[in-house]
Amino acid sequence: MAGWRATDIPDQTGRTAVVTGSNSGIGYVTARELARRGARVVLACRSEARGTAAVERLVGEVPGAEVEFAGLDLGDLASVRQFAATYEQGHRQLDLLINNAGVMALPQGRTADGFETQFGVNHLGHFALTGLLLPVLLGTADARVVTVSSGMHAMSNIDITDLNSERKYGRWTAYARSKTAGLLFTHELARRLAAIGSDIVAVAAHPGYAATNLQTAGPKLEGRRAAESFMSIGNRVFAQSAEAGALPTLYAATAPDVRPDSFTGPGILGWRGSPAKSWRAPWALNDRAAERLWEESERLTGVAYEGLKR
């Protein structure tokens, strides 16, 4: 794993990948590098304008790349259902599902379905998407599901009695909880897949501190110019590039030695560097918490993972 680079990605010819939030940042780099190695890639993005522009840019960087845009708003379960239905109609396989899209430290808000925005987009949207695409994943040999979390999950465990932060809202606490939820989802998904003997590999990854627009989106939305400037300076001075930040995701998605329920991040203090095994908080490996979150996620989204019952 030491020194692993994008050039080490195995040949992906004949494989199909869906990358959520792939119009910019580490999602775009992930999609580009998979396409560079021969994968057919679906850029699943909320904005059609930004998504189609990303497709054009990617084809310009990787001539001959087989890529397409598909609309997906993870903050709207109707959109998630529409994406999954359309995908199943047009594709017979799904080798890689990269649950990359996310929002960070936003002011308190609600999704189209009434969920706290960060929990709704970062966790519930991807939970529903994965469940709805499960039939095609199960029908594809050696498929993988990679959920992008964050080292900042260590700031807070989930509160199973207040998943939508209705009692008290803190933008960073809500973000951390949504990323803990992603790790618990991966933990339980890996366990349930193993229980039925499936060869799908469910794993998690995180980019460390990578320079993307994720850090500035919240302050910009609220008009907090000082905070936006502070984040921008941090991106320039301390963060690694989006190219480097995408490496843990790419490793988790393609390296032959990746084990189910692993968590990959940058090797230098979880901050930057080549992909390595990443530390995670003990609560992110709690079997009972993972089971309860799964049950609540099925109830909230209305998406039942048929065939993966406990």
Automatic annotation (TrEMBL):
<comment type="similarity">
    <text>Belongs to the short-chain dehydrogenases/reductases (SDR) family.</text>
</comment>
<dbReference type="InterPro" id="IPR057326">
    <property type="entry name" value="KR_dom"/>
</dbReference>
<feature type="domain" description="Ketoreductase">
    <location>
        <begin position="15"/>
        <end position="161"/>
    </location>
</feature>
<keyword id="KW-0560">Oxidoreductase</keyword>
<dbReference type="InterPro" id="IPR002347">
    <property type="entry name" value="SDR_fam"/>
</dbReference>
<dbReference type="Pfam" id="PF00106">
    <property type="entry name" value="adh_short"/>
</dbReference>
<protein>
    <submittedName>
        <fullName>SDR family NAD(P)-dependent oxidoreductase</fullName>
    </submittedName>
</protein>
<dbReference type="InterPro" id="IPR036291">
    <property type="entry name" value="NAD(P)-bd_dom_sf"/>
</dbReference>
<dbReference type="GO" id="GO:0016491">
    <property type="term" value="F:oxidoreductase activity"/>
</dbReference>
